[in-house]
Each structure stands twice: as C-alpha cells, then as structure tokens.
Amino acid sequence: MEVKVETLAACKKKLSLTIPREEIQQKLDERYRELEREAQVPGFRPGRAPRRLVEKRFHEAVHEEVRAKLIAESLEKAFDQEKLDVIGEPEVDPDAIKMPDDGPMTFSIDLEVRPEFDLPDHVGIPVSVAQPVVGDKDVDLALERLRESHGRLEDVPADGEAREGDIITADLRIQSGETLIVDRPGVRLPVAAIAVEGIRLDVVPKMLKGAKAGQAKSAAITLPDDFAKEDLRGKSAEVRIKVSAVRRIALPTDAELLKAADYESMDDLRASVRRQLQAQSENTFRQLQEQAIEAWLLEHVPFDLPEELAKRHANSLLQRQLMNLQYRGVPVEEIEKRLGDIQSASTEQAARDLKLHFILGRIAKKETIEATDAEVDARLRFIAAQYGRRDDRLREEMEAKGTLDNLRAQIRDDKVMRVLLEKAKVETPPAPPAPEPKPEPAPSASLGTGAEKKNQGAAQG
Known about the structure:
single chain; alpha+beta; Alpha-Beta Plaits; Chitinase A, domain 3; Trigger factor, domain 2; 3 domains; three-stranded antiparallel beta sheet; 12 strands; 18% strand; disordered C terminus
C-alpha cells in the first residue's frame, strides 16, 4: 500500500492511499471462497455451485463489502504507519470511493490531527496567589443575608408609605411619544434602581419612596444610546407607575432565625457561618492557584488549534451561553444586541479550553495519569445524587450522547492539575485588606428579592 501525507493547514492533513490490485484481488478471492462453501445458488447444493456463478450472483454485494473492509483496514494501517494522531472519526463516504475491476484503488481524505508542540518543564511552575481571609465583617454580612433569606413579605397598611427595600405591586408603563415601550400590569418592583428591557431606571427609588397604594407616579427619562430600537435611542420617555399594593420584608428575630436554621445559639450559628465562609475561601484559593497554572501553561505552550474542532467547540459553547441567557429571562432583543460580544467571548473561551485540554492531555501521557473506572463511577454517582437520578440511567444517557469520554477527560485533567500544583513553586503573599461589599447590581423588573422569590415564586410581568 502506498501512503502519501500532505499538510493542508495547522492540524489538518490530506491522506492519499493507493491499494495495489494484488491486495484487492486477495480480499475478493477470500470472500468468494467463503461464499462457495455457504452460498445458496438455485439448482446447486451448498458448496457445489461453480465459482463463476457465485461471482455473478454476488458480485455487487461482495465488491461493496470488500471495498468497505479495505478502506477501514488501510486507514488503520496508514494512521499507525505515519503516526497520525487523528481527532475523532474520519469522515469517509464509501460511495464516493470506487473499486475498479482492474488496477489499484485510490482515494484521499482530509483529517484533523492533534496539534504538535514542545512541552516545557512543568515542575516548579510559579504560583503566587494571596489567600482570601474571612473577617468578622464577612461573617456579619453573611448572617445578614441569611436573615433576609428567611424574611417574609407582609402587607403594609393601605395608608402606609413605601420605603427603600419594600416590594410594590404596580402597573408599569414606559412610553416615548406615541410609542409604547413597556406595558406590564401587576408587576412586582423593588423600591430600588432597576433595569427593564435594557433601560436602567435610576428614578424608581425617588418615584416610589413615600408612595401609597392607589397612587400613580411618573417621571421623565432619556432612553440609552444603545437601546434595542435604533429610532428611539437618546429620545425622552415617560415612566408611569401606578401602585396597587405595598409589601415589606419582615426580618426574623434571633429566636426565629435560630429555629429556621436549626441552631441552639447565635454563637453556634455564627461559628457555622464562619466555617462555611472559610471552606468557600479555601475553594476560591485553590481555584485561583489553578488559574495561575493555566495562565502559565497557555503563555508558555503556543500552538495552533484544529480549525474545524475549534469552530465546533465555539458553536457548542455559544449555544449553551444563549440557552443560559434565555433561561435567566434576558429579553431576546437584549440577547440579539449582545450577540456579537457573546459570540466573540465564546470563541475566545473555546480556544482557551481546547488548548488547555491538549496541554493537560500531553502532561497526563508523560506522567502516566489517567482516570480509572472506579473514579468515573464515583463521579457518576455524585452527579446522579445531585440531581436525584439513578447513576446507571445517567451512565446510559451519557454513553448515548457520547459525553462519558468527556467526563473521563475532565477527571483526568483534574488529576493532572493536582499534580502540577503539588510540583509548583507556590508563594502565598499576604492578603490585601478585604474590600467593602459592593452594592448589588440593579435588578431586572422581572425579578423580586430573595424573600419574594421564596414566598411568591418567579416575579410576574
């Protein structure tokens, strides 16, 4: 067999094969001899039919079978002979490959192969990451949020005035000239700066503070320069809110909070919260160290990626990003407006993920690291428990979707990262002072507070 390999682009090869007539004829003869012993030919007992009748009766089927066998065997030999590390299954169209009655059979296919690169010494990778420190202020803030999460919404008396942090039920309208932009009856709004369909409404707190049920408030705004509808960008608009009810979060007392959290004393609860924050801090610290190693590897191991594989991975990542945004309730207009940035970020992230995958794979091979069946089973059981699933059913689904190998690769990469971190040159500089808590970003009008979500479900609008 004659093999010729051409480089078309980075990680892309053209493989041309020529199978001599002698090899073709040998495979044909082998198959016809088998048929002579077992084929049913009218007028002859099994094994008694003349060869020429067997060839005539089964010519087409035998040629198709032998052609497929020759293609598969020759590709396997060529990959091994040329040491081609092919990605995935090569796309071969057997119908496009002809097996002539005389002479050799020739065909060519394009292949994606794993990138080739020099692996630097990965012992002693410098890692300098400050470990986050859990302070009393962090514990206080976490306790405050825990208390808020156990709060309950209570109706404010009819003549009661809304104040910051309250939740109102109202009819919301935003209109620019004759164009009605937003019309949401019975929407729940926090008395706070909010965002509605890409319009930031910093005027809401001033509008609603002091408002009572039955009152209507209005204010003028200017639509943003990047508003989804181009003809309305920079135009003035009116925000009108008609309040129908005011509700307030009633925070639980210490006794109520302890009962809800199932603790005996506030000291015990505080100690538990501190332990949780410290565990989160340790996890964050580990992630920061791994990110430092990843950044070092990406900087010191440059290479080109397989183009088609990178495109497929980027597209898959993009689809997951879009589905996640839709699941979170981001308006379609806003998604479309950000599509270019999302696509660019997905492409960049996909390239980074793939590069790390190839680098960690090479290190795994050098260090003889692999994911064992027991580790895969354990990870499957963990994932199944998280989702209340049976692990055998989850395995069947992942095998059907072809994602079980991805899980195995993920476990292998995790083990490689642990080894790299063990062999790294780790320095832990002193942690900087903990920053003051940043204010929460403006919520969407379609979202409520934590207490409202707990008691009312998803916000209406």
